[in-house]
Amino acid sequence: MRILFVHQNFPGQFRHLAVALAARGHEVVALGTAAAVRCFAGVRQVVYAAQPIGTFESRHPLAPGELGWLSKLSRGDSAARAMRQLQREGFTPDVVVAHPGWGEALFAKDVFPAAKLLVYAEFYYGAQTGDSGFDPEFASRGDVLGELLRMKNTHLLHALSAADAAISPTNFQRQCHPKWAQERIRVVHDGIDTE
User: Fold this and answer.
1) Which of 33-70 are b and which e, b meaning 16 or more Cβ less than 10 Å from the residue's Cβ?
2) Helix, strand, or coil here: 51?
3) From CA 116, how far away is CA 97, in angstroms rounded?
4) Orientation angle between helical segments 69-88 and 145-162, nearest 10 degrees
5) What is the pTM of this model?
6) Number of C-alpha atoms within 13 angstroms, CB side, residue 13?
7) Percentages (nearest 5) of helix, strand, coil residues in the chain
8) How far apart are CA 18 and CA 22, in angstroms?
9) Of 32-36, 105-109, 164-168, 170-174, where does mean pLDDT reach its minimum?
10) How far apart are the C-alpha atoms of 190 and 62, rounded to whole Å?
11) What separation in angstroms does the CA of 13 have from each of 58, 81, 132, 158?
12) DSSP 40
């Protein structure tokens, strides 16, 4: 089987899984923006650069952090270009495992429509259930908090809607997502090699 991991800071949460799949004889490629700091046995690492996206002066007030949606769009486009390059080189994955947190999963299904897409559903922002709107000291944007969070979740919703399946590391993280998405998310704890 051919497996593509997409994570801005590969290996991130995929270190043990990528190495284990490669050890079982699968062809594993990892795509990310961070320079490979160490080689992982059997895992081919491909580094790409995210395209620049403008300035903070051009930022819309509802665009959360890092130029918000523009940053995610740029990373998604950059990742798609890198995926197309892999395709031109003859690599077409059976499965794409992507962390959608920075936008890299936005166009994975467009580039590889026949591949199964598994997204890592780490967190979904919510005014009542998450890390926003709970501290009165930072409530100055309370009148548009809902709008800010909707935009902050946009790239995550796109990834979830395109995904064939999703995983979360804990029940809490799964339950942060909308009810319709929770049905598609399985809890698979990561990061601990029990062997």
Assistant:
1) beeeeeebebbbbbebebeebeeeeeeeeebbeebbbb
2) coil
3) 8
4) 20
5) 0.85
6) 16
7) 40, 15, 45
8) 6
9) 32-36
10) 33
11) 33, 23, 24, 21
12) B
Task: State the alpha helices, DSSP H only, in 89-144.
Answer: 108-111
> Torsions phi, psi of 172, nearest 5?
-55, -45
Whether the CB-CB separation of 121 and 181 falls below 8 Å is answered with yes
Task: Look at the block and give the residue holding tokens 């064939």.
Answer: 164
Please, what's the b/e burial string for 72-103 (b: 16 or more CB within 10 A of its CB; e: otherwise)?
bbbbbbbbbebbeebeeeebebebbbbbbbbb
pLDDT tens sequence across 119-165: 999 988 875 555 665 566 655 555 666 777 777 888 899 999 999 99
Helix residue spans in the chain (DSSP H)? 15-23, 69-88, 108-111, 145-162, 171-175, 179-182
CA angle 167, 169, 171 (to 5 degrees): 95
C-alpha 181/C-alpha 162 separation (Å) is: 11
pLDDT higher at 191 or 90? 90
